[in-house]
Amino acid sequence: MYGDEATIRRILTETGDTWAVVGLSANQGRAAYGVARVLQRFGKRIVPVHPKAEPVHGEQGYASLADIPFDVDVVDVFVNSELAGAVADEAVAKGARAVWFQLGVVDRAAFTRTREAGLDMVMDRCPAIEIPLLN
Fold first, then answer.
1. Which residues pair with 50 in a beta bridge?
2. Rounded to the nearest 10 degrees, what angle do helices 108-116 and 81-94 cross at?
3. 3-state class (DSSP) for residue 63
4. Using CA atoms, how far apart are residues 111 and 102, in angstroms rounded to an integer?
5. Would 79 disulfide with which of 6, 32, 83, 123, CB 3.0-4.6 Å?
6. CA pair distance 27, 6, nearest whole angstrom
7. Could you give the 3-state DSSP secondary structure of residue 50?
8. 22 forms bridges with which residues in the sheet?
9. Comparing C-alpha atoms, which of 2, 9, 14, 23 is closest to residue 127?
10. Residues 52-61: contacts with CB under 8 Å, at least 24 apart
């Protein structure tokens, strides 16, 4: 298991409320769109990160994590596993406090690197499924 229940709870309740959602675009048919909406309903500020840098759910989009001009607490990753490790490394460089790889996104080496850098990390789970279970 890559992210125990205590880590999941800590990320969702204590780590902070600014979530950069990598792979989030205005495409309503994509999972990231719905997950971001759930995060907003639970009080999280979402920051869309997508090459199109388009606004989503009323929030300004950015082309990359490095382009975000403020701190982010959690980086939620909706890219395929082959690209996810680089995003985790960018999250570390950005100063994020945690990284969350969505369902189906697995990179064990990135998990190890991210944890060794001092960040909490969850992999192959969905915060939109986990957050309602906390209440």
1. none
2. 10
3. coil
4. 13
5. 83
6. 33
7. coil
8. 49, 77
9. 9
10. 52/25, 52/26, 54/25, 54/26, 55/26, 56/24, 56/25, 56/26, 61/24, 61/25
Q: pTM value?
A: 0.96
Residues in the chain: 135
C-alpha 13/C-alpha 44 separation (Å) is: 10
Structure token digits, residue 90: 């960018």
Q: What's the rounded Cα separation, in Å, for the pair 88 and 111?
A: 8
What is the side-by-side order of every strand in the sheet holding 45-49? Answer: 45-49, 18-22, 74-77, 98-101, 120-122
Beta bridge partners of 45: 18
- What is the distance between the alpha carbons of residues 100 and 81, in angstroms, rounded to a whole number? 12
Instruction: Tell me the DSSP string of 9-65.
Output: HHHHHTS-SEEEEET--S-TTSHHHHHHHHHHHTTPEEEEE-TT---BTTB--BSSG
d(CA 41, CA 111): 28
Distance of alpha carbon 15 from alpha carbon 97, whole angstroms: 7
pLDDT tens figures, 10-63: 999 999 999 999 999 999 999 999 999 999 999 999 999 999 999 999 999 999
